[in-house]
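Subject: Sanity check before I submit

Could someone independently write out the structure tokens for this chain? I want to compare against mine line by line before I put it in a report. The sequence has 141 residues.
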Amino acid sequence: MTKRYPKNFWNTVLHGGDIFIKGNRIEAVGETPQNADEVINAAGCYVYPGLVNTHHHLYQTFTRNLPQVQKMELFDWLRTLYEIWRGLDAETIYYSSLTGMSELLKYGCTTCMDHHYVFPKRTFSFWMQICLNLSELSLIR
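---
Independent answer below. Compare away.
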């Protein structure tokens, strides 16, 4: 199938129309009726691609509102928080990451690259399993 998009597609807001998705790819946009296995009526809704966050530290969600670090310069902030992050455990990382991913998803982010570099004493596969469980639960990738 040849991909079809309206003229000036990238600078246009479409009102009405169709989005034809085949597999996990957008195949056609605009007034392009297609035979589909499933039709979702999105009348009255906004449809836009998910945002991508390429740099996040999800485990930091649980320390972001600590009053004592709010007005610190970067290196003082890091020294203070590293002392807290040193004591991270699986439960804290899990709920902090779930909260962070839920907030990202709420505002349209569907993909997140987490830069988690503070690992408590567990195996790498243990932490990867937590990440996979969280992505399944929150629907963010």
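---
OP: Matches mine. For the report I'm noting this point. The mean pLDDT is 81.
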